[in-house]
Protein 1
Amino acid sequence: MRAAVTAHAGYTISKIDPRLYGSFIEHLGRAVYTGIHEPGHPTADENGFRRDVIDLVRELDVPIVRYPGGNFVSAYDWEDGIGPKEDRPVRLDLAWHSSESNQVGIHEFADWADAAGTEMMLAVNLGSRGLDAARAFLEYVNHPGGSYWSDLRRKNGREEPWGVKMWCLGNEMDGPWQIGQKTAAEYGRIAFETAKAMRAFDKSLELVVCGSSSPKMATYPEWEATVLDYTYDSVDYISLHMYFDNHAGDTAAYLAQNARLDDYIGTVAGVLAFTKAKKRSKRDVYISFDEWNVWYHSREQDRTVLEGRDGWPHAPALLEDIYNFEDVLQVGCILNTFIRRSDVVKVGCLAQLVNVIAPIMTVPGGPAWRQTTFYPYLFASRHGRGTALNLAVDCAGYSTDFASDVPYLDIAGVQAEDGTLAFFMVNRHPTETLALDLSLEGFAVGAVIEDKVMSGHDLRQVNGPDDTPVAPKDGQDAAIAAGRLTAALPPLSYRMIRLG
Ligand code: AHR
């Protein structure tokens, strides 16, 4: 089956914000404790952070990490995580039915972010708390000194402020599961007032207001319209979240789910444009897609903890989805969608980064290892930076209950600052090879400089701590001649080809 694609140097979508490839660490399960932080682990640094995990995060080149939640943040008192560790309280985390030791707080996380070469994106609690706690936290984190909260930070060992630019105004405030859930109007007012106070401290902050937790929410997209009505001129981003699953065991439908993602982004982009016009605003508000991933493999096994049958364990194994080869294809399609919508989606956070629905897993006391989905994220993060190309794609497609004409080829293209090109491709066809014929117009590229392919595995094949069989191999057949890139894309495969 032929897949004809045209790329033209003058036909682009947008400059990609590198933060499109961000991620997320929540105080949830083993993300923090025995994930990033494990004093006594053979690779632990002087702060108790696992160096093996830091190396993998650095390999992924994660530009920004959202912290500390997630549902956790909606009943979190940030002050519990500062001061001498022996004085920090153990609290019950109502979101995940666990105990929180508070041995990691803002100081420790900031040290970790530094070591991992990433920026922090902090969330404030607008569930059980509100404006006052948010403004105190901001002052603690960003004010140089000479005020109550900034001097307390200095007393606690950090002289310089961290200068965090990006702040989330709560988390999933539309969700009935959220501690302190609000109606759109209640939340819109609180978010507006919180943004006003935070901006009174520093106008240059980048503020993220909560959009819907999922396009399945009954309040979507009215939620966005109401919340933006209150906040459009006070925020920079509206957050969207979406998780993907193949409970139905239907690969074709599963791999078409990014059509839903695309609709979701398109609808919210429409609400943003509507609100901008309604308010006669000159500003643009963008989307921060700050939670997305495949999440379903662990749902059943998590019941015991989440229903409280285990009491209040500290750092129990939760949301430890073990990803398979099929999920590689799904994550590849999702990332391609974000690249294609990079005109409106500026920030993205793969949820999450370590142990909790994550590309990186750890064994307590043992090794850290790469899940199958580590790789499409790695390739997009490392080579999907620059300018997104507006590709013309001509390829047969198929239909599902919710989408028609889903092309068998899912493709995104990016031109890097140095002129090199990267194409990310998923062949969704279950049995047929796609003969890629990609016409390159107006680019100064003449050679294949990298070709990585993931194919030929059973869809249910997984990686583990001792063996990672689902890993990329070098592609063999990609060629450029007379301004055309050709390659054979095997059925159900992921591929990245770079040209220079
Ligand atoms: O990422 C896991 C959870 O999913 C987050 O805590 C929450 O925001 C979302 O429902």
Protein 2
Amino acid sequence: MTVRIGVIGTGMIGQEHIRRLTHVITGTRVTAVFDIDTARAEEVAASVGARALPSGGEVVDAADVDAVVITSWGPTHAEHVLAAVAAGKPVFCEKPLATTAEDCLKIIEAETAHGTRLVQVGFMRRYDAGYREMKRVIESGAIGAPLIVHCAHRNASVPDSYTSEMACQDTAVHEIDVLRWLLDDEIRSVQVLRPRRTRNAREHLQDPQIMLFETAEGVRIDLEVFVNCRYGYDIQCETVGEEGLVRLPDPAAVSVRGAGRNSTAVLQDWQGRFENAFDTEFREWAASVAAGTEPTGPSSWDGYAATVITDALVTSLHSGETVRIDALATRPAFYGGAGR
Ligand code: NAD
Ligand code: ISE
């Protein structure tokens, strides 16, 4: 069976996912698209033999759309996700699920009323081979109970429009999701520290930031977010347990000897770093749609949790105080129950 997909939002990552669904994943085809930038939508649609429709609602309702992918700007996600849930169609929504906790709860309510899971959120790190192996090692008990996690999320540079809050909402949000999943634990408090600012950041931007988290089980996590580190895109994660530690591997790269040096290149962007993860994410999601089963990836509850935790980070960024998170104490039975 070919899964026919409608895509809402044909910007940067929308085009990436359309390429992926057309040329990489087998058994999927993009049949309809919408973007408020009509010219862009038409150009992208023409490139894959799809139709550009006049609204997101028409993409959701189209008879030749079995499932929906949302890759528009974050503040528009909730509206499109709710439309897909109302139509009873599976929907993959790029992060964030919604930009307010209130909108995430509306989605949870609508999906719960529908009775089966329809929504998957685009936290692709859960599909990265290194993180999957790290989870397998933790669950095997080989390093004992996890005690501390050290992380770094570094970008070479960011555009001038990037704000201090985005370090929490756009950047750290990936660690928040992957660490909740990796540790099978819930984040209970956060704090943001402001180290000396790099001279390479614009005046308005606090860069780097150090984010501290504590989980329900008492695991302590430190995360350095440094988005003007200059040297490349670098993701680090090391989990220290009672009996040993497990560290994320660096991406495979050849070593080059020349000009008196032995060197290894550092990747420059997240697209290259997580390309395989994105492919696996869509392969597994499309397989669940084709089989008519519930998605197994990040749920609306995970999208809600990420928004609640990033909101707490933003509060701490401004106050400097530790912020407790009580809203996530109990996970609804619909999403697996009992909290992590
Ligand atoms: P972008 O600005 O390149 O594209 C967004 C597109 O949405 C634009 O073409 C814009 O015209 C369109 N749009 C705006 N309002 C719309 C509406 N109401 N209906 C339909 N289309 C609308 O942005 P991007 O970098 O492609 O990011 C899109 C989303 O993907 C964001 O939520 C972002 O956080 C997420 N993202 C995820 C990752 C990841 O690593 N998983 C990486 C980058 C971006
Ligand atoms: C960007 O928005 C992403 O989602 C990338 O995955 C992330 O690594 C980057 O830091 C963000 O700015």
Protein 3
Amino acid sequence: MRTFPPYRAQVVTEIPITTRPQREQALAAAGYNAFNLPANMVTIDLLTDSGTGAVSTAQEAAATAADRSYAGSESFFRFRSVLSELTHYPHILPVHQGRAAERVLFSAVLAPGRISLSNTHFDTTRANVELLGAEARDLPCAEFGDLDSREPFKGNIDLAAAEQILTGPDGNRVGMMLVTITNNGGGGQPVSMANLRAASKLCRAHGVPIFLDAARFAENAWLVIQRESGYQDKTPREVAEEAFGLVDGCVASLKKDGISPMGAFIGLNDAELAQRCETNLIATEGFRTYGGLGAHDLDRVAQGLREVLDPNYLGARAAEAARLAQQANDAGVDIVQPPGIHALYLNAGRLLPHLPASRFPGHALACELYLEGGIRCVELGSLYLGTLDEHNELVTPAPFELVRIALPRRVYTQGHFDYVAEVLADIAKNPERVPGYRIVEAPATLRHFNLRMAPA
Ligand code: F0G
């Protein structure tokens, strides 16, 4: 099939072009932590696909016409109507971003000592479970453990492991199951409809509520259509509707597949649970018809959700990711296979075998991409997931040393991605030149955002 992005640029933004000495200085001043870099020192920003998508003229037109009434604004009704049609949940609550939706829902479902089961909790999701004194247990399927395998649904939850917990001594402590589509913490891999259907059946048999973390529901639907038998002739909207229909509700950041700078929602079937969430929402986020969002963002999201389900858009975006994955492979850089859509996960451990986990090969590759090409991305390896001793030396490494290259929606063209591939290829020609890093300073919580490093 021929694919191309079904949009063109009407307004553009200049991007900073820097020299290597300038980047060396900027990275040193940032304590070798990309989160500390000023954006005007970044040429290609692949740190996240969240809130970074380019909005359409239709979204901006809708935002201009937004209704800023405190209660019952027309913008809210447009927002709710798009989400009701998509999810069929009777209760839709707007929230300013995904982690706030998590906090509000989880505080109504979990309590100290309770357990949340997931394919993988995203980092804020885990933090919101743990802040309630509950326990977050990740149960990724066994196939995910083989980074090179081309199994189509490596985002699936391990249902045998879930059943073992539900029928074991901890069974009565399980407060919920949360299935993350696509599995951002697990290589951006999709979850199959068969897995979701079976997860739902299992949870219902044990009286445990099941929710989606649906931040990338449209991209998951696209990968289901491509990879799961019986779905080839469905539209992304039909697949997404079916997914929402299999569970009791969802939390979803709309900064990803809502293609909006800000926004999220909670969708629920249960009226009593929705009522408890609404009380919390009003006390902490905002009234139920804006939930901490500006009216313009309610309208941007409503329009973004219509655009994101366009098969031409999803097909072109998936092709963009697959092409960059192929270019990385051609350059000798392995990625987590098969490529998903919102990000590529580079296998830095394999590219930089001269660096032990204690010198953080993922972080080293992320730093090198910045120094070599002004490209910003983030490590997902021992720096993020490993455990440290009191001298900030690594004690337990992460199972993998990865770098996530996130792909903002509708922002960069093939030319930019060719540039990224060229920079990667240049690094891969002499990988042994890439230095390792040591931790200079690391706070106890949310360490990857705040730590300071130095070459070692
Ligand atoms: N769930 C998933 C799967 C996510 O990827 C994110 C955010 C959230 C929840 C939280 O949503 O940012 O709106 O509060 N992921 C971003 C990322 C930050 O870069 O992957 P939020």
